[in-house]
Amino acid sequence: MSELFDRIDALVASRSPLPQPAERKRLRAAHGLTLDEVAAALDVRRATVSGWEAGKTEPRPPEREGYARLLGKLAELYPADPNATEPVEGTAVAETLSSAPAPAPQPQPVLTDAAPEAAAKTIEQNAQTRLAANAVPPAAASPPARTTRTTSSASGRPGARKATPAGAPASGTDPRFANGPLAVIDVDGDGQAYAYCVGGLVLDVPAKSIPALVDWTLREAKLGQPKLSGPGKDADPLLVLTESALERYGLPVALTEEERLAGRIPEGHKVIKQLVRAEWKLTKRGFGPWARIYRPATGSERACVQLCIPSWNALDTRHWGEAGQLPPAELARVLGVYASRVMTPRGSTAVTGLELLTALHPPTRASEPDATGKRHSEHNPGSLGKDPVDCAPCEAPDGHPLLKELPRFHVRGPGEKLFEEAYDWARPMTDAECTLRHLVGIDVNMAFAAGANGLVVGLGAPTHVKAPVFDAKLPGSWLVDLSHVDLSRVKVGKDKWADLDASLLPSPFTPKGEQPQGPAWYATPTVAYAVELGYDVAPIEAYVRYENGRYLDGWYNRLRDAYLATMADLGVDADLSPADFLAAMDGYRGRDPELAIVVSAVKATVKGGLGKLRERPRGEGWRPGEPWRALSRPTWRPDIRAAVISRTRINLHRKIVKHAAFTGQYPIAVLSDCVVYAANGESPLDFLPYKDGKPLPGGFKLGINPGLVKHEGTQEVLWGEDVRERFNAPELNLARYIKDGTVTDVDNGE
User: Which of the four, 41, 89, 201, 613, has the lowest number of CB atoms within 10 Å?
Assistant: First the structure.
């Protein structure tokens, strides 16, 4: 009889009832589960679960029973709500989207069968792990069919779901910012405005004008983000306006060419007049793609709202991809993940990278109480302070006021100008390399972030010193002759020398890899590397900074963690073996294109933030010798930028030298953080020396951590020779094209 019962049970399980495909997706997303988690728990492929949710295929036994049990339990936790109450005009309401995750998972009921219980347990553990890591689950793309009145109790009607009050914080969140750091404002066909927040939350927006929208945001929306540092300031709420929202609030959907060049709409625009009448102010950059609307602070209270307008090119496609084209809920998810892991965007990724430095190291702090018990603003140790400092003349870019006495067309050489830049070097292939089959490119992960890690930089103004003794621990700029450093014989360890073919190596001291011809200005890491290679140095003069510290460490740590957490969400973990890492990196962007956008934005935040440290004039009628706006910032610090680039380039050269000394292999080309080698195989594992799974100490190591390398691309050696011959450029930098092999024009080094 038991066999008969087993057959009957199997027959029942083969027809286990399942909800419709769209409902399957809604239930998974409501509990914050990814396709990968469900697939792993049921021991099927991710594509299989995706097919079930799309209605392309149906699950078969034995997975069908477990899948049905999972969906049944999730349906108990997140029932459909077809009879929700309509909102009351003027009341902020919150709703969980029909296919979006709830703010937090509820306790799971106990499951009885062993296989479904194990599956549910695995899924629950994975979900809790991700929530603990502050990941933001995916949200639905469609607008809500209806909203639920904000109440603290269920309506009592059959099938009704208890609404989440707009002001109810998720566990562990700041109640002032219960609804997250930002919202995407969109308007449906009936003219109803909604605020799409992180986590699938949607608020009804009653505001009919921009001033009313700002007022509603500050009074009711509970948007914003807590400060990142003790003396710092909370992040202002960010509103992202879709095209439908722009139309509703009387703003143009796109800027004219004149407005685009000006970066703002005219001062006489009706919306700006509305703000003026309501006593709101705009910053100096006016009402543009990233507008800030504020009233002067009273005490510690701030009244400021940031606007982001994607159709005005606020989200540069070079860094944000197609984010500006996403539906509101999905855009809220992308920006929400970035905000939670980096900070609420304050402008472009470059602007945000710079703002992150200040948020982590506020310029001032409150002093201890004086005799009367009053506190005062004082300098915050470890910060750059609130006032800008002059750079050294050698650190000043062309056109700087410090150089106004120079002849108009004077070109400064290495002995007058600090020129620390990333590599752009290439060489012809040797005959032996031409016999190999492939060119393989490897790329350093977050190379400039890794260069900032642990770097001691100047905090205050420079001190000019004549004939100084070089000190590798002292940040600054040094005029020194390094032309005597011979790469054919260098130290590669303590008292360990190596003989190399210097003609196949770039010089570590110049971006083009050329050997220096005399005294030149270098940042401290470059001069320190000459000493490390076994050569004496005798600086002629220097501008050093005795007030210094590891100012960039917190910045590096936050951006590193953001990068690693997002890559882990995409299936690329930090503890993978070399082969597994290469496999995980293959096609990782397709696993979740929205999170892939976040990865690109994080990397752009690093490079852009460092670039802002030496921001050049941007129009504004500037003339050489006159100051420009960026010079008024304490964070205009070309010396810090130079030190990071110097250390990044030196870190890469050190790995190249270690690799050459151990394997006899030399790079064909180097471009910034990408290095190309000739090899017989298509994989980095075909030329990187791994022994028992361990890499060459001090050399290249595969992995996702900043400073480790990934596969950039592989092309055939014949491709490289053909490209160079076609463009008649023997030293064409193949690293620029190794990723996909497409060469559109002659390499001009720009």
Answer: 89
